[in-house]
Design a protein that fits this description.
173 residues; 6 helices; alpha/beta; two-stranded parallel ribbon
């Protein structure tokens, strides 16, 4: 059994949760309306996890800074659990999209050598266990429209994140 711990941090957008194993970051739960709501979601996703208020202080600080609108880099090792090879490749490719930049589902599919797999890339983004760290909000449809977003408040939250990043994009990461 993998030992997993989680932590909830207060950000400008609300409480954000994350869970880690010894292999890396396993989950990020986007800002919720309340800390108990985020805790319930983390416990639903990682039932055996224990809370640790001192877990990964560097990541906690970067999440706070990110939701303050500051450009930050998330290069933390990831523990994708039992995710498939295509999903993990799509998530890793998405991690290369820089702060304030965007890409498309089709561009990521081509990068993976599977130019007909744009929908599969979209499905992988919809199952992203590490939103913000894997910046799936930066992936758009080929026509430039937002596409979907499975995070809090759906596409409107995706738009808020992109607008926040665009405003701060001139700063150095």
């Amino acid at each position: 059994m993998v030992s997993i711990a989680f932590r909830i941090v207060q950000t400008a957008a609300g409480p954000v949760g994350f869970a880690c194993s010894a292999r890396g970051l396993r989950r990020v739960v986007l800002p919720g309306k309340s800390e108990p709501q985020v805790r319930r979601e983390l416990q639903r996703l990682e039932p055996d996890a224990r809370e640790d208020a001192r877990l990964n202080p560097d990541l906690a600080k970067r999440l706070v800074r990110y939701f303050r609108g500051e450009p930050v880099a998330f290069d933390d090792p990831a523990d994708y659990g039992d995710a498939g090879k295509f999903e993990t490749a799509a998530w890793d490719a998405c991690r290369d999209i820089g702060y304030g930049e965007t890409s498309t589902y089709l561009a990521l599919a081509r990068e993976l050598g599977k130019p007909k797999a744009a929908r599969a890339v979209g499905a992988a983004m919809g199952r992203n266990p590490l939103p913000i760290v894997i910046p799936c909000h930066r992936v758009l449809r080929s026509d430039g429209s937002l596409g979907g977003y499975s995070g809090r408040e759906g596409v409107s939250f995706k738009q808020r994140l992109l607008t926040m990043e665009e405003a701060a994009a001139g700063a150095t990461v």
